[in-house]
Write a structure and sequence with these properties.
CATH class of the largest domain in chain B: Alpha Beta
CATH topology of the largest domain in chain A: Aldehyde Dehydrogenase, Chain A, domain 1
CATH architecture of the largest domain in chain A: 3-Layer(aba) Sandwich
Largest interface: A-B, 105 and 103 residues
Number of helices of chain B: 18
Strand content of chain B: 15-25%
CATH architecture of the largest domain in chain B: 3-Layer(aba) Sandwich
Largest sheet of chain A: 7 strands, mixed
Number of helices of chain A: 18
Shape of chain B: globular
Structural class of chain A: alpha/beta
CATH superfamily of the largest domain in chain A: Aldehyde Dehydrogenase, Chain A, domain 1
Shape of chain A: globular
Helix content of chain B: 40-55%
Strand order of the largest sheet of chain B: 10-13-14-9-8-15-16
Radius of gyration of chain A: 27 Å
Number of strands of chain A: 18
CATH superfamily of the largest domain in chain B: Aldehyde Dehydrogenase, Chain A, domain 1
Structural class of chain B: alpha/beta
Oligomer: heterodimer
CATH topology of the largest domain in chain B: Aldehyde Dehydrogenase, Chain A, domain 1
Largest sheet of chain B: 7 strands, mixed
């Protein structure tokens, strides 16, 4: 304990400078640019995951009481898949992309070359501490960067396991883990990075972006928001309910950036929907969900207090129709449904990030879009359950969010051909699949020109004839150019 | 001001700007604006910067015409969603990526290309379906007035507004909430813009500058060397007399080839621009007194002044500085550490041209690196060992008009990009859409958890479809 405190006190601005300096030297030496190096590091992550599954599951249980299956699938298996995809596709990703050139620059050829930014900082979150740390790191490695990873101190067992594993398995001259809280993060943010990738909340994101602004560092911000689920009436009720439950309580007990935050449905349909939820919730988590092993706990007492406050507000405390049970000692709140919650309540004005699901009621399902758009902020995800084609089209056209899913929840996370990121308050930039590689690459434009056919019109002395020809060259097709050359064009 | 922005938000919420017809109508109107006011534009550019109509056409009017034409011809394609493949596991689900406008955007343009750097980003904003405020630079007042007076006559006033003024206006605009900010200008102000944007988590594109070097290798034939010299002169003094983010800032050449190159450059300068300060033509002037003094001050350093091998004269009244070449000024002088943005060309000699890579890497990443060389190996080294927004081989400036190439910086030269489809993308949010199906339903997705479900999911994630089937038939051992 004593030495841990010592270690933490030592990581200040000077220490941060030293870390960045070392990584800059490694980067300048070309270590991370080598294809073999990138492959070796990705394979190391794979090995790290495979050889330490029980330890990872144990750390997640300690930090979040995360059910083994969630740890196994959402943190470990997903990450392994990300590595495998990168290992398979990287050779294509690193190839220059040919760009088409036009008559205006004839003769020429052009391409876009991906190059690493340099030394990047990845700051991750506490709810999926392994996935949200290593998923961006995979992208950064594939793109050839040197990396500092700052895991969240709110999941301390995971943070320290990550630090230990990365040091053991990976090339520490190029990839480092810096643990800690506000002090350490601030020290890191004062340094000049070539890219910062931040996963977390909007308040800290503003601090990160302002710090990045001092050095003109580009950022990716993966934030959150209130992800709505609009539920129409003529649907497969059981499937829809289960999918919403899986996305809400099945994802770290609602503590996920893309968890359904609230439901919008019609007054007429609500009773049926609520009954369906009650049935399925009991099927999944039993009569005493506080004792179910298949639910994560609330991460810490701060968040427990925050969520309790949302439930205790006068406006909503009478609206609980299911659940509401709390166990303060074990930091558990049972799956809770609140029906017909007012839009000016606390619970409807902050991202819930917990096991409470408010229902907003509307007269017609079409009115849901106004409810969603009236919150004034764009969420990371929005969900719609319907069989009505027109409603689907209106949803896609009018609801702005990072990503939309029709007739399911959260699964778009696993589709690597879809960019995963926010818009407005839910963030900027995207990743997953090739988008991760792109997020950590500078796309350098390259133009190759020859000496033949030098357009004399480019140079002074400027004359009317040249002006005519210039117009034709810039704007026109072949015919205009020929005409201009012969002095036949008008102006 | 807040009222104007509120009006823009209302317009955006009404959905009018999302319609492709509206966007095309605006773009066509912009083309009409340019075509019907060419003389006014030539006049304004001549007033602000002393630009010759040919330069104005080449760098400002022509650029916009080409940009609008290209956008109109591609817009239908760009707004169509991109279908994406989903894994077999999700069958029959479909995925797509749809570009949607960000909302109300703010564009800051600069004074050196006051028409094209204002309207080109605006084309991107309109094509992506946004409403926009354009804040032109007050350092090019005639163009700012032109835009303020003329744009409302052609474009949808409730969707696109020109707000003129000085730094105070810029500051007030930055305090408001925007859905995107596009800034062209200096790194110092770029940093202030990004800091202001951070308060609202507004994404930004920063098109900045830097010291763009030109590497000049030896050529096998004298005609190529001559052509190179021509292009270098055109690329230094052609664009607004060196006041351009992509103008050549300094030149790197081998010691032994320096004098021939300098002779070539001198000849070309005289042919293009005149023999001396009195007879100077075909050149813009320096934008204002402040910049005139800033550039003249570079030459006040005695060691720098001693390195002048051509030019050096100035006309303070007319704000003209003649094309000036310097040979090996001290590397720690201001002229070699700050972006020149003017008609002074320092030439740095090296023992071996390959040293240029190290030299360039000792400075912040520039917007462009130009390299004149026939050596394919050297080209590859430049590409892989240096970093810049763009690299252009054997020419200058041309990358700017290549619609297929992204135009933007890296590091101190900025981030984000535009031109062609990149303009559309920079003002769009690429929204992922996953269309799921109710059937088939996969039971193992749901708790209560057990080993069967765990193994099922593991196999699914491994895309081990065969193993999945075995498992479901009870034939797979865990």
């Amino acid at each position: 304990m004593g030495s841990e405190v010592e270690k933490k006190a030592v990581f200040d601005m000077e220490a941060a400078k030293v870390v960045v300096k070392e990584l800059r030297e490694s980067f300048a030496a070309g270590k991370t640019k080598s294809y073999e190096w990138r492959v070796s590091q990705l394979k190391a992550i794979l090995k790290m995951m495979e050889e330490n599954e029980p330890q990872i599951i144990a750390a997640l249980r300690e930090d979040l009481s995360k059910p083994e299956l969630e740890s196994s699938i959402y943190e470990i298996a997903m990450l392994k898949n990300t590595c495998k995809l990168a290992l398979k596709e990287m050779k294509h990703w690193i190839l220059p992309e040919k760009a088409k050139t036009s008559l205006t620059t004839f003769p020429s050829s052009a391409e876009i070359v991906s190059e690493p930014f340099g030394v990047v900082l990845v700051i991750s979150a506490w709810n999926y501490p392994f996935l949200l740390s290593l998923d961006p790191v995979v992208g950064a490695i594939a793109a050839g960067n040197a990396i500092v990873l700052k895991p969240s101190e709110i999941a301390p067992a995971s943070s320290s396991l990550l630090a230990k594993l990365v040091e053991t398995y990976m090339d520490s001259s190029c990839i480092k883990v810096v643990e800690g809280g506000v002090t350490e993060t601030s020290a890191l943010l004062e340094q000049k990075w070539d890219k910062i990738f931040y996963t977390g909340n909007g308040r800290i994101a503003r601090i990160v972006m302002a710090a990045a602004a001092k050095h003109l560092t580009p950022v990716v911000l993966e934030l959150g928001g209130k992800s709505p689920v609009i539920v129409d009436s003529d649907i497969n009720l059981q499937v829809a309910t289960r999918r919403i439950i899986a996305g809400k309580w099945g994802c770290n007990n609602g503590q996920a950036c893309i968890s359904p935050d609230y439901v919008v449905t019609t007054k007429d349909y609500a009773p049926k929907l609520v009954d369906s939820f009650k049935r399925e919730l009991e099927r999944f988590y039993g009569k005493n969900p506080l004792e179910s092993k298949d639910l994560s706990r609330i991460v810490n007492s701060n968040h427990f207090a925050r969520l309790s406050k949302l439930l205790d507000e006068d406006k909503v405390s009478g609206k609980i129709v299911h659940g509401g049970e709390r166990d303060k000692t074990n930091l558990k709140i049972s799956p809770t449904i609140l029906l017909d919650v007012p839009q000016d309540s606390l619970i409807m004005n902050e991202e819930i990030f917990g096991p409470l699901l408010p229902f907003i009621l509307v007269d017609k399902v079409e009115d849901s879009f106004d409810v969603v758009n009236s919150t004034g902020t764009k969420p990371l995800a929005a969900y719609l359950f319907t069989n009505d084609k027109k409603l689907k089209e209106k949803f896609v056209a009018t609801v702005s969010a990072g990503g939309l899913v029709v007739n399911d929840t959260t699964v778009h996370l696993a589709v690597h051909t879809l960019p995963f990121g926010g818009v407005g308050e839910s963030g900027m930039g995207a990743y997953h699949g090739k988008f991760s590689f792109d997020a950590f690459s500078h796309k350098k434009a390259v133009l190759y020109r020859g000496f033949a056919a030098d357009a004399f019109v480019r140079y002074p002395p400027y004359t009317n004839g040249k002006l005519r020809l210039l117009r034709a060259l810039v704007n026109g097709g072949l015919l205009d150019i020929i005409r201009a050359l012969f002095g036949w064009s008008k102006a | 001001m807040e009222g104007s922005i509120a009006e823009l938000r209302e317009t955006f919420t009404s959905g009018r700007t999302k319609s492709v017809e509206w966007r095309k109508k605006q773009l066509k109107a912009l083309l009409d604006l340019i075509n019907e006011n060419e003389d006014k534009i030539f006049h304004a550019l001549h007033q602000d910067l002393g630009k010759h109509p040919a330069e104005s056409y080449r760098d400002e009017i022509g650029v916009i015409q080409k940009s609008v034409d290209f956008t109109l011809s591609c817009l239908d394609k760009w707004v169509a969603p991109n279908k994406e493949n989903c894994l077999l596991f999700f069958f029959p689900a479909k995925g797509e990526v749809l570009s949607e406008p960000l909302g109300v955007v703010l564009i800051f343009s600069s004074w050196n290309f006051p028409i094209s750097l204002a309207l080109d980003p605006l084309i991107g904003a309109i094509s992506a379906g946004n409403t926009a405020v354009l804040k032109p630079s007050e350092l090019s007042p005639a163009c700012m007035s032109f835009l303020s007076e003329t744009v409302p006559l052609y474009l949808d006033n409730k969707a696109i507004k020109i707000i003129g003024g000085g730094a105070d206006v810029g500051q007030r605009l930055l305090e408001l909430k925007w859905d995107k900010i596009f800034f062209t200008g200096s790194p110092r102000v770029g940093s202030l813009v990004m800091t202001a944007a951070a308060k609202h988590l507004t994404p930004v594109t920063l098109e900045l500058g830097g010291k763009c070097p030109v590497i000049v290798d030896n050529f096998s034939s004298p005609s190529k060397s001559k052509a190179a010299a021509k292009r270098i002169v055109g690329g230094k003094w052609g664009p607004c007399t060196g006041q351009a983010c992509i103008a050549i800032d300094y030149l790197l050449v081998e010691e032994k080839s320096a004098s021939n190159l300098i002779e070539s450059l001198k000849k070309t300068i005289k042919r293009f621009y005149g023999e001396n300060l009195k007879d100077l033509k075909n050149l813009s002037r320096i934008v204002n007194k402040h910049h005139f003094e800033r550039i003249s001050n570079f030459l006040k350093d005695p060691q720098v002044a001693a390195s002048i091998v051509y030019g050096g004269s100035v006309n303070e009244e007319k704000l003209i500085i003649e094309p000036t070449i310097l040979l090996d000024p001290p590397l720690d002088s201001d002229i070699m550490t700050e972006e020149i943005f003017g008609p002074l060309l320092p030439i740095i000699t090296l023992k071996n041209i390959e040293e240029s890579i190290e030299f360039i890497n000792s400075k912040p990443k520039p917007l462009v690196i130009y390299a004149f060389t026939e050596n394919e190996t050297f080209k590859k080294r430049i590409l892989s060992e240096t970093s810049s927004g763009t690299v252009t081989f054997n020419d200058v400036m041309m990358q700017f008009i290549c619609d297929a190439l992204p135009f933007g910086g890296v590091g101190q030269s900025g981030y984000g990009r535009y031109h062609g489809k990149y303009s559309f993308d920079t003002f769009s949010h690429e929204k992922a859409v996953f269309h799921g199906a109710f059937f088939p339903e996969i039971e193992p997705r749901y708790p209560p958890w057990n080993d069967f479900k765990l193994l099922f999911l593991k196999l699914a994630y491994r895309l081990d479809y065969f193993g999945l089937i075995l498992h479901m038939l009870g034939l797979k051992r865990p």
